[in-house]
């Protein structure tokens, strides 16, 4: 099992994908979106899971792309909903074309994801599609909750963890589970694979929340404090609102309600409140809890110890990343 | 085979459908959309096709709903793209909620359509989903072409027929084909069922184009001349632009380019041009060609003559409708 070999194979398969030709307004945005790059983390995880059980993982590369195409479909529609101008430094589809094109191209991408799953043998199809459907609905539920939270007072830690489980972690769970399902791993293992993905998915999101505030600008590659400036309800803010009292609560509320402010001042003030309330440590503990839970699932898989170790190392690498 | 019995069963199954609960912004619009009613033509056609081959058609009602849920998904997204305020006299989903809700609820509806197909036995699934995927992509292609046509000069009769084949007829084709696929009808018959649906689908759209101009307001139930007022590129207008010469062409172009006008005057003038150019007859001939092609497919099905006759009568009833 070699992660680089898997990533290379995934990128080759993506480059070879045929989405359709006519009308170009429908298919060009799909090619554009898929060409923006990224780490292809989801299908790489799928094939890493597959390679736990078979050396012949190469033949599963095409159906593994279903999770990457699905992921990019959600990004295309999310970018409309979030009115995001840029994605990986390039104009988003709805900016480059228009909203209608982004809606309709996204719809076809979702259909394309199902088409990729049809590469699987008939006897696996019903189970894989049933699990994929559940995951797809959960990702939509998570996106809706995320939008709701913007205007919703009193979002709790529990609400937030459930939202990121749905929006982010469910697809990482399914990506790993798919790897097991494709090679006929037993139910215990496919469940453990799902829980591994779900746990590290929640951990990754908590890490993102932490990096936004405590990351080094040069390494993170985006402006530190973006979430703070936007009043984004991250784990850190929710926890701080829960923990803060008197002076701290007053100051936090003040900054959240300022219609205009000097960005650096707001970021500095809220970061200082986080520090005083030990929010960084609380969030890191929570994150490490989820990573540990994931590793516990990985340990219990009925697979070759050396191969499990390789998957573990790959996940630890992603955990250690600074962007 | 009793069409009313089939329609009753379809409505019962729709009423019993569970889409999900939380968050309500995601699932309430689906229930709302599905409760707006309509003739449920597509799943009724599916079960009518099924009943050509088996008396036990009732057990296929749930997977047949996939085509109705898919159809309503396309309406929910189309209404955003067309900025349509009303659907069956009620506010559209993006009007009642907002665009983001309509995008995301629609996405989940598409997932729900696939979930309904999972009711089918494993050995049929790959084939059914492959055909469904093709159909779903074609419907999106048709919608994109329809939007393109608004700004595209020189749309030909051939372009138009291809657009309505994709946007409207492909799903009617698949609806009938699905009925055959579910009961294991042979490839000749499932192909004929598809072609039957595709042909009458094109015929229905041509009939819609005709009714907009030549229908009786009371029977049609919507304002006569709506397409003319909106410069909609229907079969009639495309044909008239192709046939008109000198005085007629000049007058037609005049009305198409008037930024403001008295609606009745424009409708009257363009209708008169259609009459002079015999466009009504040309369109009716074309429509009848497609209906005849459909009936020719129906005749060739390897099914019981009495049952084929019942399906034929049902289709003739829809053809004879005035709205």
UniProtKB/TrEMBL annotation, chains A, B:
The highest taxon in the source lineage is Bacteria
Q: Note one Pfam family from the annotation.
A: polyprenyl_synt
> What are the alphabetically sorted keywords of the record?
Magnesium, Metal-binding, Transferase
Write down the InterPro entries for this protein, in alphabetical order: Isoprenoid_synthase_dom_sf, Polyprenyl_synt, Polyprenyl_synt_CS
Q: Which SUPFAM superfamilies match?
A: Terpenoid synthases
Name the cofactor(s). Answer: Mg(2+)
Which PROSITE patterns does the UniProt record give? POLYPRENYL_SYNTHASE_1, POLYPRENYL_SYNTHASE_2
Among Gene3D superfamilies, the record links this protein to: Farnesyl Diphosphate Synthase
Q: What family is reported?
A: Belongs to the FPP/GGPP synthase family.
Q: What is this protein called?
A: Polyprenyl synthetase family protein
What is the protein's species of origin? Rhodocytophaga aerolata
């Amino acid at each position: 099992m070699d992660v680089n070999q898997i990533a290379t194979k995934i990128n080759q398969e993506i480059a070879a994908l045929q989405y359709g030709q006519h009308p170009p307004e429908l298919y060009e945005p799909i090619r554009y979106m898929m060409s923006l790059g990224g780490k292809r983390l989801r299908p790489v995880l799928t094939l890493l899971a597959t390679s736990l059980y078979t050396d012949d993982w190469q033949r599963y590369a095409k159906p593994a792309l279903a999770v990457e195409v699905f992921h990019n479909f959600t990004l295309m529609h999310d970018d409309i909903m979030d009115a995001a101008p840029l994605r990986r430094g390039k104009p988003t589809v709805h900016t480059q074309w228009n909203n209608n094109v982004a809606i309709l191209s996204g719809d076809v991408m979702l259909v394309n994801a199902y088409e990729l799953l049809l590469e699987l043998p008939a006897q696996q199809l019903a189970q894989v599609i049933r699990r994929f459907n559940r995951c797809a609905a959960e990702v939509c539920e998570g996106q809706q909750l995320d939008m709701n939270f913007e205007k919703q007072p009193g979002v709790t830690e529990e609400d937030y963890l459930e939202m990121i489980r749905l929006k982010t972690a469910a697809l990482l769970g399914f990506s790993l589970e798919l790897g097991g399902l494709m090679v006929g791993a037993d139910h215990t293992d496919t469940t453990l694979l799902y829980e591994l993905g779900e746990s590290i998915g929640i951990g990754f999101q908590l890490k993102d929340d932490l990096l936004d505030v405590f990351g080094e600008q040069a390494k993170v590659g985006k402006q530190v404090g973006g979430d703070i400036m936007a009043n984004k309800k991250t784990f850190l803010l929710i926890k701080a609102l829960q923990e803060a009292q008197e002076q701290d609560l007053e100051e936090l509320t003040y900054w959240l309600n300022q219609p205009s402010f000097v960005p650096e001042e707001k970021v500095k003030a809220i970061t200082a409140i986080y520090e005083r309330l030990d929010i960084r440590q609380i969030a890191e503990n929570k994150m490490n809890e989820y990573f540990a839970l994931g590793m516990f699932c990985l340990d219990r898989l009925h697979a070759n110890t050396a191969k499990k170790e390789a998957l573990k190392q790959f996940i630890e690498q992603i955990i250690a990343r600074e962007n």
